[in-house]
Amino acid sequence: MDKKNQNFSVVSLGQQNVPIVTEDTKTRHSWVPFGIYMQDDFYFAITQTFSTSTTHAACIEGIGDLIFGKGLYSKNEEFQQRLTKLIPQEETKKVVFDLKLYGNAAYQVFWNDEHTKIKKMYHIPVQTLRAEKLYDNPKIQNYFYCIDWLDQKAQRNKKKIPAFGTSNEKMEILYIKNYTPGKYYYSLPDWMSALQFTEAEAELSNLHINNITNGFLPAVMINMNNGVPAPEERDTIEDLIERKFTGTSNAGRFMISFNDDPANKPTVDTINIDNLHEKYKYVAEYAQDRILVAHRITSPLLFGIRTANNGFSSQSEEMKTAYSILSTMTIVPFQNLITNVLGEALVDGGYEDTELYFEQLTPLVILAQTAEETGQTVDEVQTDINEAAENPDQIEDGLELEEEMERPEYGYSLAYQSILK
Fold it and tell me: Which residues span the domain enclosing 224?
């Protein structure tokens, strides 16, 4: 039916498509933008999810704490004394957080004057770095540093920086990333499939706070009783009402109408939606469940999140089993990635027998229960857990590399920044 002859309109509200992450290699810039909804908004969008989704934030901070544990150490006592000054613990903790939240992380590396030995390593916010296009090179040669890539003025002050192992500069940055299919310059966080559910949880929070602030307004049908306007005018009215009264930010708003004749006043008919509170509750619970699944969390209790059904006969049993699975499937792989990258970099930086490992942060209830069951002390149980989680690549031969060979870019790229001088 032609819209001219229609006296009734159905307003189509905004819709959200599945987010697609892109590395824009066709850009005119010499660096590669990394975007989701816009050309280069990946890090901004990811930061927003952490700031607005309660479940997601708890998972990021909780898993990040477990990955870092009690710190990064070396089994080589002689090197341990150097490691304390070489890589401050608080810098590694920041790197761990970035790696879990963004799927990418970076160290700032300082060399001696002869470029033969690494003097110091610091964290640098990974969202400030962008990879240079490969051109004809087999691996990334340079990165660009900018404090805010969404600011065109700030981009004018960007700094081009060489990749670790490709220059004789005194300052470089070690870029850490996992392998992601379809991506080369950057990687995706392990929870990326739950991005929309983190946004749904944030929107639910926004909806409720606006309803509470402004009062509760039900779904309605608005009837204009002063004639049928032209299609163009009708579209304008629909757009105006949609902008003012739809979306979670507009929940609870009211309308004022001014009329010359009471007979022509608009009428508002309430559309009752059965069990609306249950629908919101279902969406909230489903979003939380999907976020936990994406983070590979077997039991939310490990992070202080309580759910209705946990499937275990006791909380201690649940936490012990859940921690074992989480440690094997999530914590240790993150730790191995970091120790492998750091181990290789330190060998290139003039150090041998690094034997790096993370001391595990184990819930006290698990340590106490295991100690009681095995007859060991809590310290002995903790030692056994640390040894079980050690990276075999760091133990075997202390990462002694007798032959120098060209290595592919497996899991990390490197760069430096001089903005902090």
Answer: 196-294
